[in-house]
Amino acid sequence: MGEGEADSPPAAGKKGAEEEEDDFGYRLFPDRNKKPQSFLVRSLFTFHNKCQLMLRLTLETNPYARLLLEALKQSGCTVFNDRHFSCENCDGCVSGGFDAATSQIVLCQNNIRQQSHMNRVVTHELIHAFDHCRAHVDWFKNVKHLACSEIRAANLSGDCTLMNEIARFKFGLKGHHQTCVRDRAIRSILAVRKVSKETAEKAVDEVFDACFNDLEPFGRIPHSKADAKRAYRDFQNRDRYTTNL
Question: To which protein family does this belong (predicted)?
Answer without folding.
Answer: Belongs to the peptidase M76 family.
